[in-house]
Specification:
The protein has 274 residues and is an alpha/beta fold. It folds into 2 domains: 3-113 and 261-271, Quinolinate phosphoribosyl transferase, N-terminal domain (Aldehyde Oxidoreductase, domain 3); 119-259, TIM Barrel (Alpha-Beta Barrel). The chain is built from 11 helices and 12 strands. The strands form 3 sheets. It has a 6-stranded parallel β-sheet with strand order 6-11-10-9-8-7. The chain has a 4-stranded antiparallel β-sheet with strand order 3-5-1-12, with helices on one face. A two-stranded antiparallel sheet has the order 2-4. The longest helix has 31 residues, at 86-116. It is elongated and about 75 Å long. It starts with a helix and ends with a strand.
Length: 274
């Protein structure tokens, strides 16, 4: 689904038969200005979705952005200024803010994780735990926050997980079968040190160290050759992530970046008197 299709669906959801409140006021076009204000410190993402949501109902509106996506914005700073018919901008307000608040929330949450591991070689990865149809937007928000995208979808890369391993009767069988049908690099999930030894013996390109405590992670990393990439996953939070990065993993994947990020608090301030 394209961004424009998402926006049209969101507007249809929000006003399937028009905005009965605004339309019942029988307001004539009211040209004026509105300002988008940050009500907390945020990292900006979703500017295009915000802008196109406004333009879907007020095609002639003009938006001046004072920041770029990925910028840190402080509480009470003005993010952008919008000029146009405020009656139509009012109708578009909630959809536009929903997009920008959600995506800036992801970028802001990602930036918190990235700052926690500053000075290490580790990179923060996202996952496929995204809102249906919003994956491109949400993964772009992760990048705006300083994170790195894992595979975008199941077609992108090979990741042999626990269920694949179970159905094939082990890591060795699973890797051998995949290599019969694909030349793509192989990442394999390992839940124990023994799994790690098997994945190393099979020359996996990357090993996903899943749900291991720090002591087990340390033992696993001592086994894995330098040329094999490592990714730690499971129970990763802001309190723990720095200690995991200090162990020397290449990546830490965090599902919470997209499935649990709080919405960024922003508001649209209308200047009707203009």
């Amino acid at each position: 689904m394209t961004l424009l299709e998402l926006i049209r669906a969101a507007i249809k959801e929000d006003m399937p038969h028009g905005d009965v409140t605004t339309e019942s006021l029988a307001l004539k076009p009211r040209m004026g200005r509105a300002r988008l204000k940050a009500k907390e410190d945020i990292v900006l993402s979703g500017a295009m979705a915000f802008e196109q949501s406004m333009q879907a109902l007020e095609p002639t509106c003009r938006i001046k952005w004072h920041f770029e996506e990925g910028d840190e914005i402080l509480k009470n700073q003005i993010i952008c200024t919008i000029e146009g018919d405020l009656v139509q901008i009012l109708k578009a307000e909630r959809v536009a803010l929903n997009f920008l608040g959600h995506l800036s929330g992801i970028a802001t949450h990602t930036r918190r994780f990235v700052k926690k591991i500053a000075g290490t070689k580790t990179k923060i990865l996202d996952t496929r735990k995204t809102t249906p149809a919003f994956r491109d937007l949400e993964k772009r928000a992760v990048v705006h926050g300083g994170g790195v995208n894992h595979r975008m979808n199941l077609s992108d890369a090979i990741l042999i997980k626990d269920n694949h391993i179970s159905v094939m009767g082990g890591i060795t069988n699973a890797i051998n079968r995949v290599r019969e049908h694909s030349n793509l690099p192989i990442e394999v999930e390992a839940g124990t040190v023994e799994d790690v030894k098997e994945a190393v013996a099979m020359k996996a390109h990357r090993i996903l160290l899943d749900n291991m405590d720090n002591d087990t992670l340390k033992k696993a990393l001592e086994i894995i050759p330098a040329e094999v990439e490592t990714e730690a996953s499971g129970n990763m939070n802001l309190d723990r992530v720095a200690s995991v990065a200090a162990l020397g993993v290449n990546y830490i994947s965090v599902g919470a970046l997209t499935h649990s990020a709080p919405c960024a608090d922003v508001s649209l301030v209308f200047q009707w008197e203009d």
